[in-house]
């Protein structure tokens, strides 16, 4: 099937305004007759639930954390982009649009990216109005910093906790609606199935994580704002509870999964110290404003104290390879460059898997106090984890899985191919192409939540009869029964392995074979190993306790079971995509200098996969990508 | 991969186990063997849980999520101190190099009337949400707001607001307070929004509604112990409580 993203046509700068006008409206008195189910309450879901509640819709919102204030959006450090052009440095909506398309290696839809750039400015205004304490200069104006993949300063920030402040802004708006009664919030609740009636999404089946109760919630539309899936690598910068479960359950009920192989490996994370490691910690890309990446030129210097390596014997490899962007090269490029240095035997720290991020030059230039003001909390965090002082010696960094550009396929209205199922934020695939630029995730989450879904969902709801669903529908009982049966099966296995043991093994297979560099051979290895691990899980896992109580092992087991199915799709997509683009790097497809080599003739499309059964061959659908405004070019940051 | 630091240690844990909110709880003893100093405190507990599962024993339930000190989900009293007492550090960021071979470590949940135990070390903190729902926001609508630079905010005020806004809502201040008070938590939000021009219009109704909610949720009052500030992993200053009191006085005087 050739998919249609239903993007508006005509001059790009008019597309969103025209589309908004063309969308049907639900009149204010009728809005209260419609119920919207919102799964996930991070930046996208929290902003959407608050905005829809305020418009007058009945919203039921769900999160697995004990409060919507804890979604992993909170961990974003560096900032949020907007095309305000306050610094007078030549920025514009068009430039943000262009940078995002190019940053994504020409694998995103033009119209979606244009809309994102256009509403970026509204987001800053909205957050300021909510009381988000963005950094200000001494005259009281909003301050900006630079981020990777751009030559302008368009990133707004709140110390090193921008995600936290934006999420708390959305959480405050959501709290206001909860108080007003327009949003009913369910904390510690996990979605375990999507209910589809006559081909239309009408509800979800959830598990109350405190009592273990399994029940259904029905609505006129279901929105998933359930984040990304890079915990498929076991070790990542995501929170421990981040999973593919909601997306995967929707996929199994018919929603297409788009570009699962587009995963982002973030270049600056604190290296792993041992097998006990449970997660990896990211250090903000903003550090590359002042930090310089280097490794020793000579292998024999790798064991030395970094301050004992003379200046002439250091290889500032990003400045050398990409003189015009330098240390602010985009993430995919900086990650591969770090890996290349380590593969060359010039890595530092345990196992030689690390590069230095050095602030000595910046401290000399602007003083230690200024650096502390800019990044103090990050230096503190680094010291807590590594016991090393980043002001006195360079930090050690290594790339780690961080973000999923892929996600459920959606059209321009953020609706999946299943009518009534909308997907927001990181959970969808729409704007970042094959690589996301820094400070763009917060922008997308809030754009989708505040300024896209409130309009586009109205266009859908205006065309359907409100309340056209019932808990008595046989599909509801079937869904609840399936969830019960799945849990019962997990408890019945009584095997010898813990969930974590199998999960770690999966992570190892994925990182080694489907991580930063992929080849046909490594992907085939992964595709052979994953089903074995899945079999092992379903024959030999041991979960104690029972389902009718607070049981974190059961929660984890359910998520790992879904990763064990999803990992196969991710590897499959990576195998079929015979090109390198953005975060997807196939060693067979590279330029003589090691840069990614795209194949626009055969792969300038979105790959959207249809589920056909566990272990069965999924069906590939394509949505061709057209570039009318940006010239398809080799992406260069040199 | 072998561990970076090979000086491992053996520890004895005394962990609070409680089946549910109404079940009796007690301390149970567990051994943590071959603990690497590079492990985080929660990774040490992960390893203990793995050995418990292998023995068929229900693992220790505890809340955690981001494991980088920002989500506020982790909540353990370690050796009598919320988050373990390392300056401005959540328990998820506490590393085992703070302990030494042979130590006995006591691990308990947040204890406060407003935080019923769910299981073992996990407690119900929804009362903190209730306080924010009472008024911890600016009542602006989505869209239709002024340009971000339309109202200038002097840097000292923006910085003051940010100092308050750093609160992660973990509830350590409540657990540390002998009165089980949530004054530091509440005051941080009141102060952030009271100092910003955007929040000034509703300052009086906000402080009234939030302090009312504080009482209704069963939190105690502040009697200046300053344990909250000492327990706070983000170093939120008690000066915000003074600010709350001033805002409250202004509100009732009008």
Model description:
The complex is a heterodimer of chains A (638) and B (254). Chain A is of the alpha+beta class and 638 residues long. Among the domains of chain A are: 267-401, Succinate dehydrogenase/fumarate reductase flavoprotein, catalytic domain (Flavocytochrome C3, Chain A, domain 1); 481-614, Methane Monooxygenase Hydroxylase, Chain G, domain 1 (Up-down Bundle). Chain A is built from 17 helices and 19 strands. In chain A, the strands form 5 sheets. In chain A, strands 5-2-1-9-17 form a 5-stranded parallel beta sheet. Chain A has a 5-stranded antiparallel beta sheet with strand order 11-15-14-12-13. The model of chain A has no long low-confidence stretch (mean pLDDT 96). Chain B has 254 residues and is of the alpha+beta class. In chain B, a hairpin with a 2-residue loop joins strand 3 and strand 4 (81-82). The relative contact order of chain B is 0.14.
How would you classify the quaternary structure? heterodimer
Q: Roughly how many Å is the radius of gyration of chain A?
A: 24 Å
What percent of residues of chain A are in strands? 5-15%
Number of helices, where a helix is a run of at least 4 consecutive DSSP H or I residues of chain A: 17
Cα distance, first to last residue of chain A?
39 Å
CATH architecture of the domain at 267-401 in chain A: Alpha-Beta Complex
Spatial separation of the terminal alpha carbons of chain B: 66 Å
In the CATH scheme, what's the topology name of the domain at 267-401 in chain A? Flavocytochrome C3, Chain A, domain 1
Apparent shape of chain B: elongated
Task: Explain briefly what this protein structure is.
Chain A is an alpha+beta fold and 638 residues long. Helix content of chain A is 37%, strand content 14%. In chain A, the strands form five sheets. In chain A, strands 5-2-1-9-17 form a five-stranded parallel beta sheet. Chain A has a five-stranded antiparallel beta sheet with strand order 11-15-14-12-13. A four-stranded antiparallel beta sheet of chain A has the order 16-10-18-19.
């Amino acid at each position: 099937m050739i998919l249609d993203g239903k993007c508006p046509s005509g001059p790009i700068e008019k597309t969103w305004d025209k589309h908004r006008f063309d969308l049907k409206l639900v009149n204010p008195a009728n809005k209260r007759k419609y119920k919207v189910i919102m799964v996930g309450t991070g930046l996208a879901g929290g902003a959407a639930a608050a905005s829809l509640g305020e418009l007058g819709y009945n919203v039921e919102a769900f999160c697995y954390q004990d409060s919507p204030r804890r979604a992993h959006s909170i961990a974003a450090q560096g900032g949020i982009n907007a095309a305000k052009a306050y610094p007078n440095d030549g920025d514009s909506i068009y430039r943000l649009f262009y940078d995002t398309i190019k940053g994504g290696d020409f694998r995103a839809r033009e119209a979606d990216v244009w809309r994102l750039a256009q509403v970026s400015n509204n987001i800053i205004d909205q957050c300021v109005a909510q009381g988000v304490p963005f950094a200000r200069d001494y005259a009281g104006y909003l301050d900006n910093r630079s981020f990777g993949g751009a030559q302008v300063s368009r990133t707004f920030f709140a110390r090193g906790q921008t995600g936290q402040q934006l999420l708390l802004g959305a959480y405050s708006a959501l709290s206001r609606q909860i108080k007003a009664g327009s949003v009913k919030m369910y904390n510690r609740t996990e979605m375990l199935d999507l209910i589809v009636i006559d081909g239309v999404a009408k509800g979800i089946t959830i598990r109350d994580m405190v009592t273990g109760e399994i029940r259904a919630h029905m609505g006129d539309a279901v929105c998933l704002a359930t984040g990304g899936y890079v915990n498929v690598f076991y070790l990542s910068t995501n929170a421990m509870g981040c999973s593919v479960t909601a997306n995967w359950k929707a996929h199994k009920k018919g929603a297409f999964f788009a570009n699962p192989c587009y995963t982002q490996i973030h270049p600056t994370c604190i290296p792993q110290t041992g097998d006990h490691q449970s997660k990896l910690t990211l250090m903000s890309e903003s550090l590359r404003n002042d930090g310089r990446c280097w490794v020793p030129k000579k292998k024999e210097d790798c064991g030395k104290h970094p301050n004992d390596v003379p200046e002439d014997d250091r290889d500032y490899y990003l400045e050398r390879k990409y003189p015009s962007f330098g240390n602010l090269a985009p993430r995919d490029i900086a990650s591969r460059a770090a890996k290349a240095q380590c593969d060359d035997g010039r890595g530092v720290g345990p196992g030689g898997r690390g590069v230095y991020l050095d602030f000595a030059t910046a401290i000399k230039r602007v003083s230690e106090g200024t650096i502390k003001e800019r990044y103090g909390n990050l230096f503190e965090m680094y010291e807590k984890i590594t016991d090393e002082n980043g002001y006195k010696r360079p930090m050690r960094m290594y790339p780690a899985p961080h973000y999923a550009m892929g996600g459920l396929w959606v059209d321009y209205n953020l609706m999946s191919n299943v009518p009534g199922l909308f997907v927001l934020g990181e959970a969808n695939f729409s704007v970042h192409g094959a690589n996301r630029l820094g400070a763009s995730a917060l922008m997308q989450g809030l754009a989708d939540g505040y300024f896209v879904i409130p309009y586009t969902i109205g266009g859908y709801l205006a065309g359907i009869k409100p309340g056209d669903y019932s808990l008595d529908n046989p599909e509801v009982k079937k869904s609840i029964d399936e969830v019960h049966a799945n849990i019962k099966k997990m408890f019945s296995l009584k095997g010898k392995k813990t969930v974590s043991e199998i999960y770690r093994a999966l992570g190892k297979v994925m990182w080694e074979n489907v991580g930063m560099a992929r080849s046909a051979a490594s992907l085939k290895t992964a595709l052979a190993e994953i089903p074995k691990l899945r079999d092992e899980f379903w024959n030999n896992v041991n979960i104690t306790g029972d389902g009718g109580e607070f049981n974190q092992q059961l929660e984890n087991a359910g998520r790992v079971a879904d990763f064990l199915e999803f990992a196969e799709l991710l590897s499959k997509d990576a195998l079929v995509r015979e090109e390198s683009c953005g975060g997807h790097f196939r060693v067979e497809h590279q330029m003589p200098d090691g840069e990614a080599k795209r194949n626009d003739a055969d792969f300038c499309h979105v790959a959207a996969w249809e589920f056909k059964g566990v272990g069965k061959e999924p069906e590939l659908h394509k949505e061709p990508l057209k570039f009318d405004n940006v010239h398809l070019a080799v992406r260069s940051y040199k | 991969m072998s561990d970076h630091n090979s000086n491992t240690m053996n520890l004895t844990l005394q962990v609070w186990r409680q089946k549910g909110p109404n079940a009796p709880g007690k301390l149970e003893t567990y051994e943590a063997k071959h603990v690497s100093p590079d492990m985080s405190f929660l990774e040490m507990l992960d390893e203990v849980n793995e050995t418990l599962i292998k023995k068929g024993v229900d693992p220790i339930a505890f809340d955690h999520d981001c494991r980088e000190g920002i989500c506020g989900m982790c909540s353990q009293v370690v050796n009598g101190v919320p988050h373990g007492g390392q300056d401005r550090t959540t328990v998820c960021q506490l590393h085992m190099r703070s302990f030494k071979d042979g130590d006995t470590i006591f691990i308990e949940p947040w204890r406060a009337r407003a935080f019923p135990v769910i299981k073992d070390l996990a407690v119900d903190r929804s009362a903190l949400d209730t306080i924010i729902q009472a008024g911890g926001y600016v009542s602006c609508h989505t869209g239709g707001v002024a340009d971000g630079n339309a109202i200038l905010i002097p840097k000292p005020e923006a910085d003051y607001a940010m100092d308050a806004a750093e609160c992660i809502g973990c509830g350590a201040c409540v657990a540390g307070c002998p009165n089980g008070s949530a004054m530091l938590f509440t005051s941080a939000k009141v102060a952030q929004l009271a100092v910003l021009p955007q929040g000034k219009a509703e300052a009086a109704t906000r402080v009234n509604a939030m302090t009312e909610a504080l009482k209704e949720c069963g939190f105690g009052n502040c009697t200046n112990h300053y344990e909250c500030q000492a327990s706070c992993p983000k170093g939120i200053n008690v000066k915000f409580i003074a600010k709350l009191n001033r805002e409250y006085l202004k509100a009732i005087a009008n």
